[in-house]
Amino acid sequence: MPANVAAACTGERRDGPQVARLLNSRWLGYLALKGAATVTLVYILTPLVFVTWLAFFRQEIPSFPPEGYSLRWFQAIPGNDRFVSGFLLSLQLAVIATSIGLCLGLPAALCLARFRFRGREALASLLLLPIVVPGIVLGIALYVFHVEAEIATGLPILGSLGGLIVGHVLIVIPWTVRLVTASLAGLDRSIEEAAQSLGADRFTTFRRVTLPAIRPGVVAASLFGFVSSFGNLEMSLFLVGPGRTTLPIAIIQYLEWKIDPTIAAVSVLQILLIGAAMLITDRFVRISRVV
Amino acid sequence: MARLEIDRISKRYGEVHAIREVTLDVADGEFVVLLGPSGCGKTTTLRVVAGFAEPTAGVVRLGARDVTQLPPWKRNAGLVFQSYALFPHLTVAQNVAFGLEMRKVDALERARRVVDALRLVRLEHLAERLPRQLSGGQQQRVALARALVFRPDVLLLDEPLSNLDAKLRQEVRVEIRELQKKLGLTTMMVTHDQEEALTMADRLVVMNDGAVRQVGTQQDLYERPTDRFVAGFVGRSTFIEGEVEQPRRFRSAGGLILACNSQAIGPATLALRPERLLLDTTAHAGMDNNLPGVVEFVSYLGAAVDMHVRISPKERVVVQIPNRAGSHLPSVGAQVYVAWPAANAIVFPGAGN
Fold first, then answer.
1. What residues of B are in the A interface, CB distance below 8 Å?
2. What integer pLDDT is reported at residue A20 of this predicted model?
3. A151 CB-contact burial (10 Å; exposed 0-12 / middle 13-18 / buried 19+)
């Protein structure tokens, strides 16, 4: 590293023009960018690293330094009914909600991207609202709605699986709409016209040309929808019924009584699951290109 | 292939007339080029023929069929786009096969015709590549093969060469033209590049402001432009405003008296082709027009040199002289004579714009 950089870093003043030149230099900006990126990355990764580390501690009450390492907390998970059933419910919920969300979000994104109509901007914002509104607010709103709906119709809506699914669809939709709209915006419309000139009607054009072209956006939308549904806690708290617990809720409930590293182990499994999903997805589509 | 008839087609977007009463006949096997500046309506005309824009009025006929109300997928028109519009997720062969698949051609026949089409554009060795692995010129040829493989009634080319670099463009022009002749394709091409239009077309259609200004061969447009716009757009012209004050006598706004071939008295514009003027250091004997002037600007083009010569306080003409070996080129400030026979000036009646 040149001497003048060291001087600038330590705050030692050298002659003015040299400092000015340094401030103008491109690699100072480059250094600043690298620095900011590093800080952000550390900020994001630190908790994950600690949780992972903690999951392997042998002692029951987490404390530093660890007394030793073991896999006992991981081994305990399959024996815990609440975690297993919570995981299965969350998985089921995320898959169903993502599928429905995609079926609703894809046509909505097509309309938003293709047609100019009154209230289009408003509709676009409205469809993004579920991820902007705090989960607690969303949960309370849905809870009250379910109560009222149950009173009005006499159907068992409150705490039902259907109610939970509807809520999760709501938080999947913004992802599908947003990401599919983004892919459609980058799509060369003339390939659709080319297909039509070659003899494909509208539906065939969509199936054979449009859909494959926006596939990265659709895959990314499914992934993000899945993850946001799978990890949702706040809203789900208001919608689960007796004996129906999602994994995040099972974790919270466990934490109310114990703080042993089981929770860390469960979290590690969750991180691995989501990480694997992202890696696999990234093999098919470059997520960074869509999001 | 079939004959294409466009009969008084208009297209209005709200209050804006994109095209107005465009009428055009493309004979079986003919290559017609629509030429005009951007926004002149040439692309709208092509899109109406392809079926992507519905005309507000008028009829499009393809062969014996009235296709005006048909959607694009029922028109049987081969289309090549400016961006080529290849399907990015399909291989070259799959791209070319698409039109055949839509027509339910059986797999064996399909494979055979795809190979034929690719051989036609000399790309059979790249059949398994994806479009993004091809150069611009190769993509363009795939687009052409894809548009031809299903034997369309008409081939429509929408600025097909504008994304190629200058050198390649010249080669592809010839290539497309030869292919078109060999297969006897009824073709309509849209371009804003007059050189491209002149080299490829059997007939040209000059458009401006949504209307057809003139239809004709290269010679027709160049030698006998019907209006000032065509004279300025096809080839180059210097315009001199003034009036025909008596038969064969034109008085310019700058007070020059010029011989011309017009009999109609009244305000008029004189159009002079730069290469149809003579430039010399001495006066030409026996020339209808012989004007002293001063060279004000010289632009050296290699094969030729443009001389901008002031012939009156209000008028300046461009004279193009061939750059022959050893010829003496007047420099800026030189006293010269500009001469031309009356027949070389085209007169458009009416005041200039």
1. 50-52, 71-79, 81-83, 85-89, 98-99, 102-103, 143, 146-147, 150
2. 64
3. exposed
